[in-house]
Amino acid sequence: MGSTTRSSGAAARGGARRGGRHRGPGALAASLAVGALLAAGCATGTGGDGGEAVDYDADAPVGGELVVAGFGTGDEVGAVRLATAEAAMPDVDVQLVEGDLDVQQFLSAVAADDPPDVIGANRDQIGTLAARGAVVPLDACLEGEGVDTSVYRDSALGQLTLDGALYGVPEFNQVQVVMANQQLLDEAGLTLADVDGSSWEAVGAAAEAMAVREDGDLQVIGYDSKLPEFLPLWAQADGVRLLSDDGRTAHLDDPAVVEALTFAADVYARQGGFSAVKANRDAQDFFGAENQFATGVLGAMPFEQWYLNVLDEVSPDAPVVFGTVKTREGEPVAYTAGSAWAIPAGSGNPQAACRLAVTMTATDTWMAAAQARVDAVEADGRRFTGLLTANTEADERIRTELVEPQDLPEPWASGVDAVYAAEDASFSFAANPADAEFTQAWQDAANRVVNGQMEPQESLERAQQEAQAALDAAWAEWDERG
Amino acid sequence: MSAADARPGPATGAGATRAGRSPRPPLSRGARARRRRDTRAALLFISPWVVGFAVFTAWPMLYSAYLSLTDYDVINAPSFVGLDNYRRLADDPDVVLAVGNTLWYAVVQVPLHVLTSLGLALLLERAGGRTAGFFRTAFYLPNMTPPVAVGVLLLLLFNGQSGLVNEVLGWVGVDGPAWTTDPAWVKPGLVLVSLLTTGSSVIILLAALRDVPRELYDAALVDGAGFWRRTLRITVPMISGPLFFVTVIGTISALQAFTEAYTAYFGAGNSTYSNDAALFYSIHLFRTAFEYLQMGYASAMAWALFVVILLVTLVQLRLSRRFVYYEGDQR
């Protein structure tokens, strides 16, 4: 196979926005062509130079040059995965541009019709890129490569699906668990259940009980509710998501969100205010052996799961315990984030780009990468606490074949259990074309409250107006172009 | 007509100069050719700058003026929206906030910057011997520090709990504020950290101080004038030109304040701890352009800032006629 079907620029742009469906007078001919391609066992999408239709076929060889951006091989996981992808495409000359994706640079490259062929990006960036036509739908890519998308976590797919079309292949995953200093809990007569969020009254009391103030300074943070970044987590724990499932309506002034922000800000107020907490936090060595848990200056906080690995590496003997963050009904909850692969509009080698994205996120690739990580940490005399991906099959195999056989000691065993439980209960925001403005609105709202500039109700009402105006404008533009 | 009337008087104005100028003799063919060669050579020598200015300054400015009348997201073609972006400026609450913050910063920072620079220059001028070079280097050294590093330094030095600034204040019994988190103290902290980098202004003023004629001070000393009187009556008037230059450049720089505040409160590591009190106009402009990708609106913001800076500078130039002395002035 490997033939391509050219279409007009307008149709191609329409295709890029609508998953490669052809419209207009040529619709019949295009339908016949698509039907013939499907019958032959491959799928047609968009993504090539000039936006022409592209055939994706798992059995077709790929070749040429492939420029990859937004990815790094700084650790064994990245290096093994890229090597696996290169081995799967022996005729492809992979050129890696190491480092995080610079969105402005990327958009300029797309505008100049000289983009990289495939990009790694944060999932929350994909909606904005898709809305501007900078990346193409990948439904045909995944279909052609024979990928069963049900292996990907729904929360990750939700972040990548704009108006029904999938614009990214989900990669890594991040979730939060609650981390606490067992020694400080014991001294205050508390347990992990007091700080897991199932009772906000208990969290507030625990913050006060574990906090230590001396000479006007906060010496020990009792509880860090991690505002503003975890406002979505607290709102979800109170039963409300900040954004509707279709990504069009902000819920920032919902009474439950106001309640959540009030609670999370009050946790700081009980310890002397956000200024005191942040001043203490900024003075700590977060990634070093003298981290907050090792030095006993933090009672508890919700945080991303990767910090388990940091603690294991730099302070394995710190008296830390882990559990899931809970809703007020006592159910686990986590706000997921992560990365994804996407193919830019105008990619010069979309078939190879698709093959790379699929190979990099395949279960076997993740297993090879996880094994490399196991070998690396064992060589350092440490433990393997898992590798969290958006691929449920890979996660399950990594857990059962590589994590559990280690028979991890506490607190790492319960930490890993908490991470997987959190991942199963994770939620995300739907992809939308104004994610940067939406995120800025709720973060600013939380900042105004913790900085003492506004009350939660007023601040969130302002944020709701700002966010909804941005969403309305961006969606209107999307609908107009559609 | 008397003999005195007939004598040509001194040229006192442009018209008199032109009237008194004798007609230029016609150039010979050789001289004209030489002049053309000289002109071509001059143009050739300045052409790199002219091309650079045209390509990297003039054209982008003109294009941004066009973009300010459009809706443009980098990827899709700009669509003309007339003056909508300029109308939107008036309704944008963040613009109001950012303008307020920027004006506050400029009004406080510029005088402090000039006074600090003048004070340090006066001290350096008095320092003699080998130490003079050391101190000149020491005061200029912070200017070599990247502004991003200064932004990070701000968070460390001004940490309300463990920062060096509050520790020093504690030695004299002062309980320092939460410089980096209390909205009331964020801008004062930024002003103070900006004073670390007065080196360039100090060097300019120091050079000016060395040009003040010694005999003026000697005469003042004979008349019994003390240090402050000499400074206010001789030094400041005599270096008013460089002082004005430092003020104008400082004002432009303050109205464009960006890097230190962005690094400390809005950069990659701190985007979730943004503080309304540090939202300067240039930061809002940058976010609008490069985070929200609203290039048309951002271009309108940029042009509004350009016009404001131009007006402020013109006002300063107008005022300078009354307060600034230039060598050769007949005032």
From TrEMBL, chain B:
The chain crosses the membrane at residues 41-62, 103-125, 137-158, 189-209, 239-258, 295-315. It is found in: Cell membrane. It holds the Pfam family BPD_transp_1. Residues 99-316 form the ABC transmembrane type-1 domain. The keyword Transport applies. It comes from the Bacteria. It is a multi-pass membrane protein. Keywords: Cell membrane, Membrane, Transmembrane, Transmembrane helix, Transport. Residues 1-30 have a biased composition (Low complexity). Residues 1-34 are annotated as: Disordered. The keyword DNA damage does not apply. PANTHER family: ABC TRANSPORTER PERMEASE PROTEIN, ABC TRANSPORTER PERMEASE PROTEIN YESP-RELATED. Belongs to the binding-protein-dependent transport system permease family. This is Sugar ABC transporter permease.
